[in-house]
Amino acid sequence: MNKQAVQTVAVLGAGSIGSVLGAILAQGGLSVSFIERNEAIVQAINTHGLAITGIRGDWSAPVKAAGHGEEIGPVDLVLVMVKSYDTAAAMDEHIALLGDNTLVVTLQNGMGNDDALLGVVGNHSVLAGTTTLGANRLDDTTVRFAGDGDTLLGAAGQTDPQAALMVAETFSRAGLPTKAHPAVQEVIWNKVVVNAAINPLTALLGVPNGELATQDETRRIMRQVVEEAQAVAEAEGVMLDAQTLYESVLTVCRKTAPNRSSMLMDVLNERRTEIDAINGAVTLRGEAQAIRTPTNELLWKLVRTRQATYELARQTRQA
Questions:
Q1: How far is CA 206 from CA 159, 209, 268, in A?
Q2: 219 CB-side CA count, 13 A
Q3: Which residues are catalytic?
Q4: Is the model's pTM score more than 0.85?
Q5: Which of 48, 88, 222, 227 is the one with CA 20 to 30 A from 94?
Q6: Strand partners, 139
């Protein structure tokens, strides 16, 4: 695959971050299609376009949308941005997007998305990584680009590492600064730890990110989350520095102080969260290594319990 090989991109999931990523790539000259289950969003994008507002100004992205991969057909690259619990099922459902040389890239939250994709598409075509861009959806056709960030990716499974370099260069040329990283699991673990420390607390307490850094109690909880996760990562052969990670958590809280995390928004809208792929993943991987992770386990179970109360809350409102 040469450096110009990626020309067509399908973004699987038109959530806020996926929308901004796809819009940037389209603005940069790639042909971008969104695959989205929400028919209202598909129709709105195809009728009115996708509007981006925020830190790079106001602009309209030249994209199209479809409800199923069969409507688009094989593309050069599939960017998977669905919720972590939908990864394998979504890729399998839209397998028509894959051609002989299609690359599949995940920049999702949580652990295990690369393994889920490898199980569907095979060992030679998956890249995994993270992005720290910030965005939120304003309506069906408008997304606010709230913050720039770093996008890192690397080869998963037996994928050729040169593919990560090629995609990073392609994304960067299109206006999405991206770097290839030789140790992709380290990248994923770093983001998971930050999410594990921040997201469940914001969801359970109903507060924006910045509030967590102002309270002694929440700072102590976040440090415990970080230290437990670092121990699990080290047992898996991924070396992380707990103090550096904790400082990163506080920095993210302060830099995104007014932001409401995606997990808080899921809880407020009574949607399933990604807690299983974040604190749940830390807990289960810890169990596999005979490492106790009581703080991560408690947050995991509390958020799952909060999800279980959605129906009760609806019944109460209707009473």
A1: 41, 10, 8
A2: 12
A3: 191
A4: yes
A5: 48
A6: 142
